[in-house]
Design goal:
This protein is of the alpha+beta class. The chain is built from 4 helices and 8 strands.
Length: 166
Amino acid sequence: MTTVLLSLGSNVQPRRYLHAAVTALRERFGALQVSPAYRTAAVGFDGPAFLNNGVAIQTDLPLQELDDWLHALEDTHGRDRSGPRFSDRTLDIDVVFYGDLVVEGPGHLRIPRPELKHAFVLKPLADIAPDFIDPVSGQDLATLWRAHKQHGEAFEVVDLDPGVAD
């Protein structure tokens, strides 16, 4: 089994879609580690704030099969890929780490994800997997987070209960 760290985000009915994604991941992969959800500003475009969280799973699925399954999950939950890359979205799920694998393509697939540099990706993953080693830097996620320029800032934690209004 491989440890996989995922970054989840949504800025369209985010409680609903992140809750649904975590539920689907739990149904498919069993026990999960799930970080708190944090509200963060949109990056790369003007839009509503995002909710972001991290999830750790154990899987024996090969990376491409997992990535395809996650894309189908996004699509099932209304992901629209016809617009600009940086835009509002119901659900975005990225494989940030797949064990100690380092991948540079083909296509969009890059592991570790370059978005790891953003607090909205790194903080949730450091919350749930502080001892996980980034195969590129050789440092654990807790160390990377402590070195991040936003370490020590307050982040708004949001309950993912879908019954709460967004």
